[in-house]
Design goal:
361 residues, Dihydrodipicolinate Reductase, domain 2, 27% helix, six-stranded mixed beta sheet, Rossmann fold, six-stranded parallel beta sheet, alpha/beta
């Protein structure tokens, strides 16, 4: 790309906003030129607005420190400075839908980490290795919004990344029933142990709204485009439990699967090792070279050893074995704030650029 696209971050001061900024520091296609947040942060430098709340392991990028934070509600002003925006705002769902639609109507594409638009029929919810064809509904969405450039695209919930790619790799064997328990890191709630000391040596067996997302969102990924809308798949039937555990980064899933067909272990492993999609074919900047890696050791995957596989953009799987009640069971691991949040959204944006839905203004 000859000239980098100009990017804005909505909700730039929060944990996911910070992750966007950290991941985009040396991006070959994108440059962060604008940061926006709530009115209370507006007018401050980004460094002042974040203060002692910088939660990334790497230092705050120098280029971003002195950027003046815009008021996220001043849509036309923010939109005039960028080619597109990433959205990581912390508002109610109604407020998020309104602000993201407002930016889209200001002819500024929005690539969102938020859940507010995940079930809007003409908004694509995409994992680029799984369902990039869903971006086709953008044309119908633009007609609804009355825009030429603007639209909203979203990525799915962080927890499903640890098992939905695996089930996708096995789709020809026709999964029919899935039981998944996810063990979810505290960064998924935007927290560190400093923020949430009660999570130290603790487990909380409830995450509000997470089980419905974990059961339903994979079906939307596997759905079809019909008359400018996404129609979700009917199978497999998925039931989940979602548990918060004392881990900073990394969502682990223990999964049981029944199939309509009867795959061998060798067939299942071959599908995992060779799983790839459009990002790998196009060699997009954030795409993992190997999307899914299987680990033979009995005690893997482990968060400490494996969460950063492929810079946090890959999925690690282990303990694939036959089950007494189901056909097969396995354990999956994904990085919830990289692949599951900001990194997944960045890969969506790269795919949208490659497919020419996002261009320079």
């Amino acid at each position: 790309m000859k000239k980098k696209l100009k990017v804005g971050i909505l909700g730039a001061t929060g944990m996911v906003g910070q992750r966007f900024i950290a991941l985009l520091e040396n991006h070959p296609w994108f440059e962060v030129v604008t940061v926006a947040a709530s009115p209370r942060s507006a007018g401050k430098t980004y460094e002042e607005a974040v203060g002692d709340r910088w939660k990334m392991d790497t230092p705050m990028p120098k280029k971003v420190k002195k950027l003046i934070v815009h008021n996220i509600n001043e849509v036309e002003e923010v939109a005039s400075t960028v080619d597109f925006v990433f959205s990581a705002v912390d508002m109610t769902k109604e407020e998020i839908r309104a602000i993201e639609d407002a930016y889209a109507k200001a002819e500024t594409p929005v690539v969102s980490n938020n859940s507010a638009h995940r079930w809007t029929p003409d908004v694509p919810m995409v994992v680029p290795e799984i369902n990039p064809e869903h971006f086709e509904v953008i044309e119908a969405q633009r007609k609804r919004l009355g825009t030429k450039r603007g639209f909203v695209a979203v990525k799915p919930n962080c927890s499903i990344q640890s098992y939905a790619p695996v089930l996708t790799a096995w789709k020809e064997f026709q999964p029919t029933e899935v039981v998944a328990t996810t063990y979810q890191a505290i960064s998924g709630a935007g927290k560190t142990f400093k923020d949430w000391p009660e999570m130290v040596e603790n487990i909380i067996p409830y995450i509000g709204g997470e089980e419905e997302k974990s059961e339903q969102e994979p079906l939307r990924l596997w759905g079809r485009v019909e008359n400018g809308q996404i129609v979700k798949a009917k199978e497999p039937v998925i039931t989940t439990q979602c548990i918060r555990v004392p881990v900073l980064n990394g969502h682990t899933a223990a999964v049981f699967v029944n199939f309509a067909k009867s795959p061998t272990k060798e067939e299942l492993l071959e599908k995992l090792e060779n799983s790839k999609g459009l990002p790998q074919e196009l060699e997009l900047p954030s795409a993992p070279k190997q999307f899914i890696r299987y680990l033979e050791e009995d005690n893997r995957p482990q968060v400490k050893l494996d969460v950063d596989y492929e810079n946090g953009m890959g999925i690690t799987v282990g303990r694939l074995r036959e089950d007494t009640l189901f056909d097969w069971k396995f354990v999956g691991l994904s990085h919830n704030t990289v692949r599951g949040a900001a990194g997944g959204a960045i890969l969506c944006a790269e795919t949208l650029v490659a497919k020419e839905y996002i261009k320079a203004k």
